[in-house]
Here is the input.
Amino acid sequence: MSVDALSREARDAFESYAEPHERPPFRTYAALAGAFNAAFAGGLVAARRSGRLPDRIETRDVLLIGTASHKLSRLLAKDKITTFLRAPFTEYQGRGGPAEVEERSREGEVRGAIGELLICPYCLGLWASGAFHLGLIFAPRTTRVLTSTLTALTLSDFLQIAYKAAEDKGLGGS
Here is the structure.
C-alpha cells in the first residue's frame, strides 16, 4: 500500500468517525495527550538518569496518590471556587453536587478541547496522578504533605455528606 493510499485511508477513518458537528478535535486531543506523555516520560527519564527512579512504589503511596488525584481532579473540574480557572474554556450549565457546578466546553477546536479536559475529573485524574508520582520521586516530603492534605479533605467530604444524610433522616443534630 502506498503512502498516499495509507494517508487517504487514515483521513477517511477520522472523517467517518462522526458527523462533522459531532467530530472531536482529534489534532488538539492528540497534542494534549502528547504533551502529557512527553512531560511524564521526560520526568521518568530525568528520574532514571539521576538515580531517583524507584524500583517500586509502596502501596500506601498508591493509595495516597490515588485518593489525592481523585480530590484534586474534582476540585479542578467541578468546584465552584475554581470556576475562574475553567471560565475561559467552559460555560456554566447549572449546579452540580455539593459545592460543585456543571459546565460545558466552549466552542473552538483548541478552546473546546481544553474545556473538555478541564471539566472531566477522570481526564484530569491522570494528569494529577502523573504529577504526584513525579513529585514523589523528586520532592517526596512536599508531595506527601500535599497528597495527605487532599486525602484528608476527601475523608472530610465523605463525612460531611454522611452527616448531612443522617441529619436529613433525623439522626443528627448540631
